[in-house]
Structure formats: C-alpha cells, structure tokens
Input
Amino acid sequence: MKNSIETKTLKAREDFIMTKGSNQQIKCDQQSLAGAVSQRACVYSGARVVLNPVKDAYHLVHGPIGCASYTWDIRGSLTSGSDIFRTSFSTDLREKDIVFGGEKKLTTIITELIENDNYQPEVIFIYSTCVVGVIGDDLKAVARRAEEKYGIRVIPVESSGFSGTKSKGYKAACEALLNLMEDFKEKSSEQQSSRTKKIGGKNVFKQQAAIMEQSNKENKANGQAEVKFSQSDTRKAKINALVKKLNHLSEIQTSSGINSYENLKQARRLIKQKQRSKTRKKLNLLGDYNLAAEGWIIKSYLQEVGIEVVAGFTGDAGIDDIRRAPTADLNIVQCAGSMKYLARRMKEEFGIPFLEISFLGLQDSLESLRRIAAQLKDPEIIENVERLIARKLPPVLAKLKVYKSYLAGKKAAIYVGGAFKAISLVKQFNQLGMKTVMVGTQNGKAADYQKLEKLTDPGTIILDDANPSELEEFMRQKGADVLVGGVKDRALAYKMGLAFFDHNHERKDPLVGFEGVINLAKELDLTINSPIWSVIGSGKNE
Amino acid sequence: MSELKKLNVNPCKMCMPIGAAIAFKGIENSMLLMHGSQGCSTYMRRHMSTHYEEPIDIASSSIDEQGTVYGGEDNLKQGLKNLIELYSPGVIGIVTTCLAETIGEDIRRIVADFKQNNELGSLALVTVSTPGYGGSQFEGYYLSLRRIVEQLVEEPAHKTKKINLIAPNISPAEIRELKRILELFKLDYTILPDIAQTLAAPYTADYSKIPAGGTRLRSIKKMGEAAATIELGALVDSSLSAAAYLEDKFAVPVYRLPLPIGLKNSDLLINILAEISGREIPAVLKEERGRLIDTMIDSHKYNGQGRAALFGDPEIVYAVSSLCQENGVKTILMATGSNIATFNNKLREITAANREQSLILNDTDFEEIRNYISEYKINLMLGNSDGAFIEEKDGIPLLRIGFPIHDRVGAARQQNIGYQGTNTLLDRITNQLLALKHDNFRENLYQKYYQPLSKSIAAESFTEQSFQTAELSVGDQ
Output
C-alpha cells in the first residue's frame, strides 16, 4: 500500500486511506486536516441541508451574507405546497453588528419579518453561524422573547460552522425538528391529562408504544411475523405462503362465519375494509429530501401497499406533518448519516421503532419494501408489496439487462458525502457488472467503511475525507472510467477526461426505486458511452 | 436598501473572500488558503466551479472549536505546510474569513513568522484581510489586487514602456479579448489578474491541478516600472485600488475607466490605448466599431422597447447601463447588493436626461428588486443567475451576464466587452426583446382589440400608456 500511495498523499492523510484486502483499519470521523483541500463543508451546512426542505418554515440565517448566499436554494427538494423555504432570509451581519453583538439586529429582523404583509411565518428557524458562535449572541433568549411576543414558534439551530463537522449540523437540525415535535407532545399531553393520568410520569407516547408492543407480541404469538420472503423464493411459493397466511388470518381475526367463505378474494376484501377503518399503518420517512421527487416516488409505493406517510424528514415536509410525526407506527430511515440520530431520539421520546432502509438500487428497494411490510406485521401490506414488486420488477429487469450489456466491465470511482449513497452505489454497480475501483465518503463512520470493504473487490481503494489530489491520483492509478460525485468533483473528472455521474443535492432526475435504477443506468450510459471520448482521445493514463 | 429594511431576502451579493479567490486564481502557479472554518472554502469552490466549469481547489486552515478558543495560528501554519507539499505553488494568497477576523487572528504576523522559520525559496505569500461581513465580493476582489501589488511590487530600477492593466471581475474570454486589443496596439503589458487560462483551461491529456497561465510573479514585481496603469473599475474606491497604490508609491499615472461594454465605454479604452501607445487605431478595430454601429442602427427600434432591470456586480451594472442608454433600452432599475459609495451618483449622472427616472438601488436584495420589477413593468433583466428566481416566479426573461451563472453553460466563454463583445451582447438583448414581441403580439392584440360582433363595441378607452403596456408586457395578463 505504502508504495502505491506515492508522494501525492500527505503523510497525515495516509491512515484515512486503505486498500481492500490489506487488513488495514481506516481512520474516519475526524476534523479535516488543515491545508489538505478537504471537500467537506461545515456544521452550518449540515444543519442547512437537513432542515431547509421544511417547506412552510422560514429559514433565517443569522450571520454575514456569505452563509446565506452560498446556500440559497441550492437543493433540488421539491414541494407540493408552500415554497417559502426556497426564499433566503438573512440578518446580513455587518462589521458594526459584530462589534456590538447581533442580538438587537436579530430581534429587529424577526419583527420585520412578522410585520411584513407578504410573510406569514408560523415557524422560524434561526441558524447560527461561525461569528454568532464567537460573539455569543443568545439565540435562545431572542427566540423565546419573540415566541412570547408573537405567539409563533422561533427555533434556534445551533450550527456555528467551526464547532465540529457536518454531522454535528445534522444533529442540530434534528434537535430543531424535535423541538417542533414538542408542540404535538404538549398538545397531546394536555388532552391526555384531562382524560387519563400519565403512565409513570412519561407522556402518552410511551403508553402508545406499550400498547403497540403488546399488539406486536400478540401478532407474533399468532404466527403473523413468520411470513418472510427471500429473493430466491419463487413467485408461486410466495403466493402459496400468502394464501396460507390469509387463511390463518381469517380464522383468528374475523368472526367464525368467515371460515365458510370459499372465496379468498372476498375474505381479503373484508379484511381490507376492517383494517382500513381501524388500523391503516402509518410511518415517517426519515433521511429523504425529495430531491427530484424521490420522496414522492417512495411515498407512492408505500401508499400503494397501504401505508400512509405522516411526514417526510424533511422532503416536502410541512410544519404540521412534522408535528404529527409522533403518531406514526414506524420510522424508516434512508440517509442514516443525517437522520439516524433523529430516529433514535424519536424512539426514546415517542417509542417509535425505526428501520434503516434504502430505496437507492433495486436490491435495496425490494429488500426495504419487504422489511417495512414485515416490520408492520400486516398481512395485507405484505401481500401488496409482493404485488407491487411483481408488477414493477420485470420491466426494470428487462431494461437493466440492456444497460448491463452497455456498462459491464466499466470501472467506477465513487466519492460522495454520505456513506449510504456510497454503499448503494457499489451494490448497483455490482449488479450492472461494473467494478468499483475507488470509493470514499466525506462523512462515513467506521461501520460504513466496514460495509464498503465487504462489498468491494480486493484492491479497491477506500478513503475518508479525500481531497482532489487523492481522487486524481487513485482514479489514474486504478484506471477509472467514471467518477460519481458532487458538483465540485465534476470538473475534476471532466478535466481528466473521465465520465461523470452527478450524485448531488441539485439533481433533476430521481435515483430511488424502480425508476431510479433505470435513471442511474441511463445516465451512466449517457456519460460513459458518449461519442466524445473516442473523439478527444482518452485523458487517462493507459 | 432603505434604512428601515434590515432583513435580507434573497441576497444580491456574495462575501469578500470569494472576490479574493477569483483575484488570486489569476496569478500564475498560485493557490489560496482561507483562514477559517472548513465550510467557507468548500462553499466558494462549489460556487465558482459551477460558474467556470473548472476544478477550483482552495485550501482551508479548517479552524475547529479548539482553534476558535485558543487561536488558529497552528492550523494556519500546518495548513500552509500541507498546501505547499501538495501543490508546490509559487504564490499563496492567505485570506481571512469571518471566523478568523472575529477571533482576532493577525495573519500578517503569523505569516511573517512562518516565513522566518521555514525555507520557502522563491515562494511568495500575500495576506489579505477579507472578513465576510466587511464587504461584498466586489471589495474582496479589488482589495486583494491592491494587497498583491502592495506586498509584491518591488522598487523600480528604471521605467519601461510597459503598461499595467487592472482587470475587473470579467470572464476568461473577456480577458483574452483585452489581450487581443492590447496586442493590436503592440503594447507590452501586465494584466492583473489574468484568468484567461487559469479559469478556462484547455483540455490536455495531462491534467495539472494548478492550471497553466495567470499573471507572472516576476511581472507583478515589476509593475512599478510601468508607464501607465489602466484600471477598469469606475466605482473602485482608492483604498481598494491597486492603480492608486502604484501611482502614490511609484508615480505610475492612472487611467480609470469603466468596463468597455457599449460603444462609448469601448471608445474610452481604445482612445486611451491609442494615446498611450502613440499609434493609430488599428484598422481591424475601426472595422469592428463600424459593425457595432451598423448593428445599433439596425436594432434601434427593437431596443427602444426594452424596459430593463440591471443587477449584480456594480461595475457590470454601471457599464451595461451605458450600453442600454446609448441604444435606447430604458434602464428602469439598476441595483447592486454591494454597498458602494459612488454607485448612486455615478448612475444618476448617466441617466439624468432620461424622460423616465431610473430607480437606483445600492446595498439591496432581490426582494426589493423583485417588487420594483413587477411595479415598473420591466420586460428584460440583465444580471447573474441569482435573478433566475424572479424569472421563474414572474416570467420576466433573464439575460445571464456576470458572476455567478449556475444554471447555464458557457459563463467562462461569454464575451461582452469591446466592440465585438458589445455587438454580441446587444444582439442577445435585441433578440430577447424580439422573442418577447413575436411570442406575444398576436395574443396581446387579440385580447386587447378583438370584439365578437354580438358584444358592445364600446371598449375601454386606450391611452398612449396602455397601448405601450399591451405591446411590452410579458404576456401574463
């Protein structure tokens, strides 16, 4: 390994780079090295990307103008309602404010915002930036006073840029979201206390959770959780299992008369009606930002199988959706890097279990749908998932076969922000017959890198918090055909004469689910097999 | 922005360090290190990379919590060492950010100390204090040029015939045009900064992470020897002016000019070059001038129907307003997010004789701009792609010029200066107005005048004003 890193890598960076098969431990989750030209951003950026899609909230950046300017409407989060989140609000701090403190200006500006006829803020998020952290403005006090005065929610986001890495910003955003959910908690406990006493001083959600757990146990006793499918199961076997299951269900869930029903369809319909009226399952989708309608695609699947999405975190999320989020039966977490923290906290606070899923890639999408259904222990949902898959899968497989013939054997390099993206990409490349020769992330954790190591072939370079010099070096060394990365990496790939796949915040084509799998293959083909490469001559080191 | 308005809604400016970044990218074999938190460099790299479609490498000293409390000196020194090892640059610009300034980092002292304790050979280090809250990209850009000159130019041994040209924040293609013009006059010149190649690098089989090109360090050192400095920047305060420094310190005479956009502004530059070089205006330029005038005549009636809003970089707004003025495009609104002392007066001067008074907004934001755009029936916006928001919401076409342009390709290839560039830009303006007219006149006239026979012919009275409105509106009625 040492000799292959050569001179282009700084010594202090060597531990953050490993070769699969070398038995090295990769170092990660550290502050970036000064002068190394890290591709990472800051705490504020983490908070901003996670929280900003909350569509009807007012996002006020308390800081000098740059912080607002460079993050104004840079995400491709789509909205089905208000789009005020796309408007940048900033206190635009000047020299004078830095000297005398920014609290006064912040207070004035909140008033200005509220008194402006064009704006009707119900919730204002105030993002803290580097200087605000240093000059020590008391955001909490300003926010509290504004809340008292105007009766709206004003929620500070502790996101001073220097105070850690992007991951800390994710947490700050999650805390702000939890703060918003407190509204619901308060409301519910008021209602609750008028009717029944709290259990052990804890809120209603614990109680809810206890009830849910009990019913889960009952289900288990009835053998409901046993229906699990693996990919190797044939469709026929699946249907047989479902029929068996449904018969069993009919016996236990309905009156004795139902046994006499010969027609399975009728039985199903009856169960359906019963469940619709009583217990339509509800969940929150965490770690999806509805980039290029990705959240909508996932929701459409869930809706089709009979699951209601209470809130997306935070793609196309409204304030009220978030406030209602604690009523969900389950949280599913896609981008774990940004939202696992929230899932954990919601489990603690509201007793909502969570499941890590991913709709990036075919394998992951199928698995996720099945795992969600299994977790909800609802036979109808389990069946509906199989139906959905049975309908959507064949055409995708047919198309993929064609793309595989175009892409097999190509070598891919991956450098993305979140590890879940990297992991799903490696899987998808494997499926397309491509080889991942380099994979890295800005914010991966040790467990993520272990996963990546498992998924890749020996010799693959794995790196954490890489810089352009390292990306260049390893792409050259490994003869990559295509780089998958964010906006900043695109120009590097192109300058090196390599194909590039845009996996960024502002993408316009969805990459999740069945549609996403095809979009990914299509874009890979578009860039890797473009006629330009044969015309310009390859810039790679052959 | 009015005194009462404090809230910034949709910024029409960026911060000082990004201006510094663009300036330093025009120095040969240079790198930039931002002393501050990691995010600043990353955001600015992204901002510049989508505009220029080039890799933009900028280092950060990555100050963390500890550095914020105990000082970032170690981070800065370590950052410099790593940067030197990775890139082997000939010049490093060290600029501050909000964080470094607020915690009181003395970069001059730290860098002097670093120089003393390290064998740096010919490596030149330039420090610039660019707190993000201290001004906009405009001040950051010109201040960096001034600091580069202050810290690098050597006492001249003799005078030469060379001229200095301090370039504004224009595109690489425009820098190439300036060079072509200077060469037509057979002038020997130093252009600062020279992003012609560094931010528009040709594709080569071997990628080099510091692109070729840029102003040479040894040329900068000799700028005190020059016969004259032309500074393209009509609104640049002398405290930000590299040319003013060269004049004060080495008695190099200054010619301060606006950007050569438009006939008059281009004439200003060409005439001065003729004067300095003592040569006739080259025939090829005369021909280009004649062609521009021909275009102006051909298009004048179309242009006369334009009601324009100009926004963005103050120098670009100032120069483009002159182009609009001379072609009859009404400059209804001229705005910048920067806070420039002379902006209002200078623009008031050139629009004083207009029948319709122009709105001039200094230190403003896009909320204010948007309000006026709706109110004053603007049918064309000229500015950077941050105006796309208004284009999307209100359907007013935006002709993208200046920095940044994020949502279209070719920003680095835009050429809007000199007679040729002006001609191209003018055609774009005219064509936009023509498209507007051709796309809408049938529907507009139908809506306005067609009456089914059964209906009363007693239509609303129409005035000169409403006639104009019908013709010029964007077609959203």
